[in-house]
Amino acid sequence: MPRSGFYGSLSSPKVDVVIDMGNPFLNRTVDGFLKIGAVGACKVVAEETFECLNRGNVSKHKLEHALKKMCKEGAYWGTVAGVYVGLEYGVERIRGRSDWKNAMIGGALTGALFSAATNNHRDKVVKDAITGGAVATAVEFINYLT
Amino acid sequence: MPRSGFYGSLSSPKVDVVIDMGNPFLNRTVDGFLKIGAVGACKVVAEETFECLNRGNVSKHKLEHALKKMCKEGAYWGTVAGVYVGLEYGVERIRGRSDWKNAMIGGALTGALFSAATNNHRDKVVKDAITGGAVATAVEFINYLT
Q1: A50-98 pLDDT, tens per residue?
Q2: A99, exposed or middle or buried, with CB in 10 Å at 0-12, 13-18, 19+?
Q3: Quick one: which of A74, A94, A84 has its CA closest to A32?
Q4: Span of the secretion signal (chains A, B) (predicted)?
Q5: DSSP A23
Q6: Is A73 an 8 Å CB contact of chain B?
Q7: Is the pLDDT of residue A8 over 50?
Q8: What are the C-alpha distances in Å from B109 to residues A42, B28, B58, B91?
Q9: Would you call A142 and B36 a contact, using CB atoms and an 8 Å cutoff?
Q10: How many CB atoms are closer than 10 A to CB A55?
Q11: How many CB pairs under 8 A join A and B?
Q12: How far apart are CA B79 and CA B91, in angstroms?
């Protein structure tokens, strides 16, 4: 039963925001969204900073554009990661086992979901599911190696 | 000092090929190349199987094309993974610490390396390095979540 708890903690230099939604599935999804969203936003900051340094001029218009891109890309990365983390956890609970097949199934489902959300071609959805599963499996294998 | 050892082991159903090059850096790189290369090749098999089932015809020409694509994509995935795993290990040894910054630096170096190998634009190399670092960091964070 999901408790409706909510607490935040912020510590420095290792910033860690914890939001307890009272449900492990939701916790993971929100955690994935926030952390990977932050990574996506940071990526845009690094890119835009490099572009400013490279061209040597900063304007208000450009800052606004960068801010918008940060929000957009952060939200996209966060959503993909949140859905993947949530689905992988769900698959793990359903299968009752913790191995690389969870990552494969979770990745395939995430790929299919986002593909189906953005286009209507059945073939494209299947191919994106295959790609998602393969990428998630590869990442899972790299985890064991590093 | 790298010993010139070499041994293989194959067990089923959990297939695991271990090639000992006598050096942890080389071991990881080769391991990454083989494992992720296999994932890349499997992805092509899944894709081509789906295409055959979808179109309902199999020809010798198509099988040859699929085989070629398997080798090409497997080698590409394997090379990227091997270089990343090797670089991350190298960064870990140099920094003497094991945290997400290794993944970020390793990803950035891998992105820059492959970008520099395929094109000559300095801007593109820096952007690919940023993207590589961000993706590797995101993956590292997802590891902790799942």
Answers
A1: 888 888 777 888 888 889 999 999 999 999 999 999 999 999 999 988 8
A2: exposed
A3: A84
A4: none
A5: S
A6: no
A7: no
A8: 17, 17, 42, 10
A9: yes
A10: 9
A11: 90
A12: 18
Q: B35 and A89 in contact by Cβ < 8 A?
A: no
Query: Which residues in chain A are closer than 8 Å to B81, comparing Cβ atoms?
Result: 138, 141-142
Closest B-chain CA to A132 = B43
Q: Is A136 on the interface with B (CB under 8 A)?
A: no
**Cβ separation A28–B130 shorter than 8 A:** no
ipTM of the prediction = 0.74
Q: Does the beta carbon of B137 lie under 8 angstroms from any beta carbon of chain A?
A: yes
Q: Does A43 touch chain B (CB under 8 A)?
A: yes
Q: Averaged over B41-66, what is the pLDDT?
A: 85
